[in-house]
Design goal:
Blueprint (H helix, E strand, L loop, with lengths): L9 H23 L11 H7 L2 H7 L4 H13 L19 H13 L10 H17 L7 E5 L2 H16 L3 H4 L5 E6 L4 H9 L7 E4 L12 H10 L3 E8 L11 H10 L4 E4 L24 E5 H4 L7 E5 L3 H4 L33 H36 L4 E3 L7 E6 L3 H13 L6 E5 L2 E7 L7 H17 L1
Parallel strand pairs: 2-3, 2-4, 4-5, 5-6
Antiparallel strand pairs: 1-7, 6-7, 8-9, 9-11, 10-11
The structure holds pyridoxal-5'-phosphate.
Length: 471
Amino acid sequence: MTDSSGRWEIAEYERLAAIAIAAAARFVAESQAGDVSVGSPPPLPELIDNLRLRSLIREGGLDPESFEPWLGEMLANSVRLHHPAQVAHQVGAPDVPAAVADLVQGVINQPMSIYEMGPAAHAMERVVIEWMSEKLGWPDGAGGVLTHGGSLANLTVLLAARAAAAPDAWVEGVDGALAVLAPQSTHYSVRRSVAMLGLGERAVVDLEVDEYERIVPGALGEALERCHAAGRRPMALVAAACATSTGLHDDLEAIGAFCRRHDIWFHVDAAHGATALLSPAHRHLLRGIEHADSAIWDAHKMMRTSALAAAVLLRDARRLEAAFKQKAAYLIYEDSDETGLSLLERQVECTKAALGTRIFLNVAFRGEQGIARYLEAQYSKTLRFWELIGARDGFECLSRPESNILCFRYGHDPDLQVRLREQLLREERFHLSSTEVNGERWLRMTVTAPATSEETVEGLLDAIEKLAAAG
Ligand SMILES: Cc1ncc(COP(=O)(O)O)c(C=O)c1O
């Protein structure tokens, strides 16, 4: 209860937080031990009823007594990211320091875009960006900002690239002559950003890819000719490290060299793969990123923070400030030496969550090496799973994995892959995803939970064989 003035009753907070911490800890413990099923969502209307959402939102009624069972039901209907059989999506299984960062942020609520509105959180974001820029191998003057997710990060980068290519676009609008070079397989947020920036989706000039949907560097010249023939000039070229569907990396060195030769802004979407920069064993996958003009890096994927915490990074941070030409007089003091203490001129958001705190605490507790060890364990397990799957009759992998994403299938029938995924989910034993690569349907696993093991994958393959045999 708050008292009638709205002030906190501290004992209430302590009681609810204790219930929540105990329940969340149990949730992770039983998930990572695989003691419970991986779960499967009931039909949406049923879930709304089970959680009494409609009556609770209209009439209220939760109190410390009813909270505990209600929270149990809520958690029972939540995805268990720490579960060994949860291999569907790229969302990280959060680590303890980031989870605790969110607990504290929930109380102190530091919307830290302006230094004075959240000094410690603001300072942590600055240091996180500085550290990430160093990891990219960029010189002094590099920098960026944290934002709510990789999609918004791609939009922000492309806005900066638009400002560089067409400085008047902010005031005058775009003239229809700009283009972004990217493969069909680029994350959908790139195409969406191009449309949102007023270039029109047709401004995306497709890059040729190989059978694994990696950009073919030798065909870039032809794409540039197509771009020019269409009366357009390139504003940026987007490569992936790694690609969402396949987990494979584009050849950043060759693509970067092409961009430098033709003076094209080189953007690397490293939302998933940038964390490999921390690993001496895997950083070669990103060789060439040091020459990029920009990159994005999602910490809520392989750095194990809660969603969302994405970085927009530019080799020359001034080009990011050129992206947003607006002034909000009540927040940004023109010609004031306070301007350095605001992030508003670098980001879409006004109020922003304390994203840097999650990242900072994970790195400060685990160390770069600790995070690298996690990534290395997940990448090498995925390699082992590739061997196991390849050794089974009837199974096939798309390619040797380069990350913790692996595409495989049982037989070649596309409908069978879809059916298998749905049946596995219905049985509540395994949660996989599925994707199309080069027009072919694959099952897809993203190995993010530390608890996922060879035994998990053997069990998955057995279950697939059984389901397929049963028709
Ligand atoms: C390569 C790539 N870029 C961008 C994104 C978008 O990131 P977010 O989901 O944080 O918006 C993803 C997410 O899956 C991704 O894999």
